[in-house]
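Risk register update: the risk that structure generation would not scale has been downgraded. Supporting records follow, first protein first.
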Amino acid sequence: MIQQLLTLSQEMLEFAEKGEWEPVGSLQEKRLQLMEEIFPLDAENMNQSQTAEQIQSILALDKQLMDLAAAQQKEITAELGKFSQGRQATKAYHSASRS
């Protein structure tokens, strides 16, 4: 099941790298459900070193995904700022043209 988490994490990162954020959200929901099913782990019935490696890989993928999300958020914030400035300029123009 940890392998499924790793696969979902890899898929999420692939979509994020393409700028396709909607599937990332859907996969995150699936991943959270899977996490609820498998955690806490049954340490006695698993290969602990392999599981530790998989978890480290998942954490590394998550960091990359969060970095991409932060960059995307900055980009969206900048675009919203430009949009807001455009609206203010339009308001000022309409206000001045009515005077």
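Supporting record for the second protein:
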Amino acid sequence: MSASDLGVNEVLGVSRIEGPLVFVEGIGSVGYDEVVEIIDARGRMRYGRVLEVGEGLAVIEVFAGTSGLSIDGTRIQFTGQPYHIPVAEEMLGRIFDGLGRPIDGGPEPLAERYADINGSPINPTARVYPVDYIQTGISTIDGMNTLLRGQKLPIFSAAGLPHDQLAAQIVRQVALGVPVGQPPAKEQQFSIVFAAMGVKNDVAAYFRESFTESGALTRVTMFLNLADDPPVERLVTPRAALTLAEFLAFEKGMHVLVIMTDMTNYCEALREISNIRGEVPSRKGYPGYLYSDLAALYERTGRIKSSEGSITQLPILTMPNDDITHPVPDLTGYITEGQITLSRDLDHQGIYPPVAVLPSLSRLAKDGIGEGKTRADHSHWASQLFAAYAHVQDVRALASVIGEEELSEVDQQYVRFGKAFEQEVVNQGLTENRSIEATLNIGWRLLSMLPQEELTRVSQSELDEYYKGSA
């Protein structure tokens, strides 16, 4: 239905065009975030949305860019409603652009309904606390920074690190279903909503091929905003993806894992639009509302009492200059429930995935592991591995001063433990999909390299059952 059919505002001519923004005067009643149909002098239409409304003035961001628009020949039609996308269960297995339009050669999805991309806020009293463990098949996540259904756990990466490969591996292993380690063993069935923002064409092709060849694509919906697409579309892409995720989780009762990469590209687009609008910049030129904008995305996660489904988020961001205090990772860390941090040093050693265990954290992990969930010894096991590996860093620092040969016998055992930990627990390759049982057993085998009296975080009964070293 066109805007004229709706009987809404229509304006011929604009006051000025700046980058992806169009400034329109002489408007009537127009609302913030309203969808706009923009028709150029040749009759070609593109969409935009209202960013700002003043007395008789509206600022519009144009999704496809303003190339080809003229001051006098551009016609603006205000639709009177926010941007909506079709949502349907049949969208699983499909690939869409950043605005939710199919780009896989298939037809338009048969919409079960049209949903506002801004979503609806979840009543805090309706939320259900996350307690169910998700097995990703990655030891450093499952064993030491456990992900729960309904949690938002970002991955902090940096330029040149293999976060794309890690994202694809998690999608494959979660989408295809792996045992969750609960007795009796049962399969976890997840649907994946994958949103890529500002990625290069070869990266987008890698994701498509990886999901297709593994058979995971049947459980995945992809939203792709490429690096050569208009940056303004990046502001819509995660919202479109989360809108579909909410429909699948809360109306269809599915467990949905949402992976969004790269959130830094999203924030760069937000900064670009803010600068064009002439807003007063905050830290490093980002708008002062960066925190609330990110929160509006991350908080569209969780479980609610009225649905069996859940939304779990794994946003991925690259830290500019490897700086974890940069506004994007800094604010993300405040909003989310922990972080998985990738290490450039481990990557240089050929370790994959190069997860830096010590600065990584899952704040909800304690509620999803243990008796009846993973294994009874899991919590103490993780605490002991953290403590032992932290001591390894102290021993390595000492060895750099006095030399490894001058270390005590116990400290030399810690050095050997640290190398084995990085090679056998952290390092597992692109194809290995480990069960939680395998992860725990590997950890105990490495802990057995240390004297029993050094293992103070585990119980005596756990030592009796799992410790294989000498007393």
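The domain at 86-367 is CATH 3.40.50.12240 (Rossmann fold). On this basis the risk owner (M.S.) recommends closing the item.
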